[in-house]
Amino acid sequence: MSKNFRGAGVALITPFKADLTIDFDGLGKIVDNQIGNQIDYLVILGTTAETATLNSVEKQQIVDYVCNRVNGRIPIVVGIGGNNTLSVVESIQSMNLSKADAILSVVPYYSKPTQEGIYQHYMAIINASTLPVMLYNVPGRTGVSMSADTTIRLAYASEKVIGTKEASGNLNEITKILRDKPDGFSVISGDDSLLLPIIAIGGEGIISVAANAVPGIIADLTHLALNGEFKKAAMLHLKLQTMCDALFIDGNPAGAKAALHSAGIIENALRLPLVPVNKTTYEILAREMQILSNPE
């Protein structure tokens, strides 16, 4: 089952119109562009989607729209997470996920649970879900890191647990997971800058922010690395470094939206508390979009 999520995934943004309603036409263009550029699967309603600013009706509308637009061409992962376990379970049980392929659920944020609390939180999600579950460790946002031991414990606890999106930046912990994980459990980079090294030590790909802007390059880099063509992959990795850095200067997804706006694809609109990138960052991203869209 985890083989469905081997390769290049994208953490999709949610484009907004100038009045801050959802821009479904823009979302459709982005989805089609991802598929046309060989992205392997989509992740919707993640951090990059500004999900914290979406209400329950909007979340279901996005799930329905993307699933219908994709129409089975590639797998779809839906982000459902939070720091209230009961609320997360209720969302899983109440949402129509009939056309989705898996759930991505983040480590509970703000509350700073113990490792046992993290484990029990995920077990409640696993027991509630009819879909496979992908773990998501991003301590820079949650305030607590899920240890390699807890990840491995969950991986062995249920066949529903198909992998982890690792955005801890801790290669020692990621190495432990890769060493001790069960067969069929995928370790997926959650950081564009660590895509290549994580694949090199046994990871199975990326859930990328940069792919919103440059899906073809992310797909090529990922597929080259997974095929063992590391010299060619390294050339793309180095070429992407400025873009990957610039995307996060003023926060995510502000950088991704600025890049797409510079290409004339969407409005440069975010819901508070997020705001657009500053002028200098915008100019860097616009320049990188031009450079990367015109290969030598």
Structure report:
The protein is an alpha/beta fold. It has a single domain, classed as Aldolase class I (TIM Barrel), CATH 3.20.20.70. The protein has an eight-stranded parallel sheet. Strand 2, helix 2 and strand 3 form a beta-alpha-beta unit. Helix 6 runs parallel beside helix 7. It is globular, with a radius of gyration of 18 Å.
Oligomer: single chain
Q: Helix count, per DSSP?
A: 12
Percent helix range: 40-55%
Specify the CATH class: Alpha Beta
| CATH topology description | TIM Barrel
Set out the fold topology:
Layout (H helix, E strand, L loop, with lengths): L6 E5 L12 H13 L4 E4 L11 H15 L5 E4 L5 H10 L7 E5 L8 H14 L4 E5 L1 H4 L5 H10 L3 E6 L4 H10 L5 E4 L5 H6 L4 E4 L6 H12 L3 H17 L7 H9 L16 H14 L4
Parallel strand pairs: 1-2, 1-8, 2-3, 3-4, 4-5, 5-6, 6-7
Helix pairs in contact: 1-2, 3-4, 4-6, 6-7, 9-10, 10-12, 11-12
Key structural traits:
single chain; 296 residues; alpha/beta; TIM Barrel; eight-stranded parallel β-sheet; 12 helices; 8 strands
